[in-house]
Amino acid sequence: MRVKVCGLTSPADAVVAIEAGADALGMVFHDASPRRVQPRRAHEIADVPLGRADLVGVVVDATPTQLRELVDQFHLTAVQLHIRSCPMTLAAELGVPVLPFVGLGEPGAATRAAWWPDLPIMLDSLAADGAGGTGLVGDFEIARAVSAHRPVWLAGGLGPHNVRAAVAQVRPYGVDASSGLETSPGVKDPRLVEAYVRGAIEAAAIVHNGLRT
Description:
Layout: E1 2-5, H1 11-20, E2 24-28, H2 39-46, E3 54-59, H3 64-74, E4 78-82, H4 88-93, E5 98-103, H5 109-112, E6 121-124, H6 140-147, E7 152-154, H7 163-170, E8 174-177, E9 182-184, E10 187-188, H8 190-208
Parallel strand pairs: 1-2, 1-8, 2-3, 3-4, 4-5, 5-6, 6-7, 7-8
Antiparallel strand pairs: 9-10
Helix pairs in contact: 1-8, 7-8
């Protein structure tokens, strides 16, 4: 299972996430987000020796041209994109993996998503503008049902307090946390980051070994 720390706005927080064992780091480029990363900071984060961690750009309603520019400018290794602006052909055209976002508000939406069944989708709670990043915990039972049929990233209100239970119940391809790891929007608490990553990894090991939590 993979572990993502999202909403990074500083290279120091990126280093903390990498040292904690995160597999993926997320930078938000959505203008309406309080965690929107500034270009200078995004370049600094991209310059951090990432090792095994992917660098994911989180975008809402961008054109293919804008996405290609972001990938090239900040050396992104994946893009997380709202599905309403994410045609299937984009996954082949962009040159890096595309993680489409699907809201958990309506049970059938994720299973009806027109997306290749072997490529992961991002499950999160819906915000008023139709994007994710609400910090609200979604319905784990819906997520579990979707995860039984296709790989999913689980997001929405995750942190050290609930990531173990989420992994045990949903058995996702990956988990994604942001606001649950912060002292303020975009500022990560190293202790929370470390506890979240450790909890996710340990819970995944228990699930993998078939042991009870």
